[in-house]
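Hi F.,

I've been meaning to write this up properly since the lab meeting, where we talked about keeping a consistent format for the predictions we share between groups. The idea is simple: the sequence comes first, exactly as it goes in, then the structure tokens exactly as they come out, then a line or two of notes. No screenshots and no reformatting. I'm using this chain as the first example so we have something concrete to point to.
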Amino acid sequence: MRLFGKCFDYFVTGMGFGAMSYLCILAFANPGVAPTVKGVVSVFIISGCIGLLALLFSSDLPITIAIGIHFVGTLLLFLLMELINNWPIDIWTLLVFILLYVIIWIICILEQLKTINKLNDRIKRRNMNRK
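Output, unedited:
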């Protein structure tokens, strides 16, 4: 059951990042273009699958290999979504993909740093109370 819960969390997190990315692209790159049912559903499902790919980072793989596999897998799923929705695949699309990939990585790293700082503060407080 723990594995299911972990997979569910990663899937939903991926859906969240994908939905944010989709809305930003519609708002800033394609203003006036309305979301479609097929677009929204494909973004949710494929973004969830990209979120599942992040499970690689909790494996025993070296981080460089995990990042490489995650990047290639994410790119392939992104291209599949582009094809499903008949969206153009060109240099602009690939640049937007890379930009969003980097931004999402930065968000994840900042979130991890925030968690680490909270844990360190708790450890410091606990150690201070023991003295």
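Notes:
The radius of gyration is 18 Å.
The chain has a mean pLDDT of 88.

If this format works for you, I'll send the rest the same way.

G.
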